[in-house]
Amino acid sequence: MIFRQLFDTASSTYTYLLGDSASGEALLIDPVFEHERRDLALLNELGLSLVATLDTHVHADHVTGAWLLKQHAGSQILLAEASGASGADRMLRHGERVSFGKRWLEVRATPGHTSGCLSYVLDDQSMAFTGDALLIRGCGRTDFQQGSPAMLYRSVHEQLLSLPAHCLLYPGHDYRGLTVTSVAEERRYNPRLGGDVNEGDFSGYMNHLGLPHPKLMDLAVPANLRCGQPADGTARGADAESDWAPLTLAFSGIWEIQAGVLAERLADGTAPQQIQLVDVREPQEFSDALGHIPGAKLLPLNQLTQRLDELDRERPVVAVCRSGARSAQATVLLRKAGLARVANLAGGMLRWRAEQLPVEDGQE
Ligand code: FE
């Protein structure tokens, strides 16, 4: 099985990727709207196809990426029947299974933080995804969205702390950067729910947290009741990044253009936005055996920021180097300098030559 834990710094939300390596089928638990492209890049780089997204509950602190991922990956939207949300492809109930390849997750109802909270337990009970029902040495609040301390106490004890002691628990959030815990640890050390804490102790604790409501609550809850579909019903407009060429976002965060795509654009004299090619290698490399792409401007990486005024800010820029590493750094510098349409030539001159695309000054 392939497993990744992803993080959203704005809301301290964890997103989990589970993939079956044999079939290539994958699930995302609690994807975040703003990270759709990051998540798609990772799935792509790992060779996985997203069959479904699962939310643990209707979140109040971030908007789910479920709807957006469905638009771009064709994934099914799954969440609790008890969530009251509309737009899901499958409404989950306690005891059901969600498959990805030969693996599956068991759905457990764990209400209390909200009335529609679900936890997902891996088929062999080696890991469970608890949403906000159980956090590391903590738990989700119970003071809105039909939350109830009594219900949460029962859910955690009956459905989560009853799992095997070695079962790893992955929470929906952590605000200190902790990543994982286990049933044994939480049974013993959870200050709200572990040890000898009874339901009365727990309710007393939870009813006096005195927390302000989450900042995004008024925006996030209505959006999540639509599974993350924007209020105007549409996907975002064309990206500034992609109005001049089809680009791919690498998981590293770098926008890339593939050699074949670039060659086509350069050959197309009718393209409305002529691409500026910036070769960021050293002068001697510019005319060595690899050669350079016809029309490329030599602007070594160490001079790039001083010579920015030699570039037309209105035209797209593609950065080029030997392997694609230095030019990736160049795209970061160019974007920092305020240029909006910037991409890295994936694989650099090495790939350009391997694909037998035209060069100047190079040798066979
Ligand atoms: Fe929550």
Shape: elongated
Which regions are unreliable across 5 or more consecutive residues at pLDDT < 50? Answer: 237-241
Question: C-alpha Rg, in Å?
Answer: 25 Å
Top CATH class of the largest domain:
Alpha Beta
User: Which architecture name of the largest domain does CATH use?
Assistant: 4-Layer Sandwich
User: What is the N-to-C succession of helices and strands?
Assistant: EEEHEHEEEEEEHEEHHHEEHEHEEHEH
What is the averaged pLDDT score? 94
| Structure ligands | fe (iii) ion
- Could you tell me the CATH topology label of the largest domain: Metallo-beta-lactamase, Chain A
Kindly report the spatial arrangement of strands forming the biggest sheet: 1-2-3-4-5-6
Class from helix and strand fractions: alpha/beta
How far is it from the N-terminal to the C-terminal residue, by CA?
A: 44 Å
Fraction of helical residues: 10-25%
- The tally of domains stands at 2
Overview features:
single chain; 364 residues; alpha/beta; Metallo-beta-lactamase, Chain A; Oxidized Rhodanese, domain 1; 2 domains; 10 helices
Topology:
Elements: E1 2-8, E2 13-19, E3 25-29, H1 36-45, E4 49-54, H2 66-73, E5 76-80, E6 90-92, E7 97-100, E8 103-109, E9 118-122, E10 127-131, H3 149-160, E11 168-171, E12 181-182, H4 183-189, H5 199-206, H6 217-224, E13 248-249, E14 255-257, H7 259-267, E15 276-279, H8 283-286, E16 297-298, E17 317-320, H9 325-336, E18 342-345, H10 348-354
Parallel strand pairs: 3-4, 4-5, 5-6, 10-11, 14-18, 15-16, 15-17, 17-18
Antiparallel strand pairs: 1-2, 2-3, 7-8, 8-9, 9-10, 11-12, 13-14
Helix pairs in contact: 3-5
The structure holds fe (iii) ion (FE).
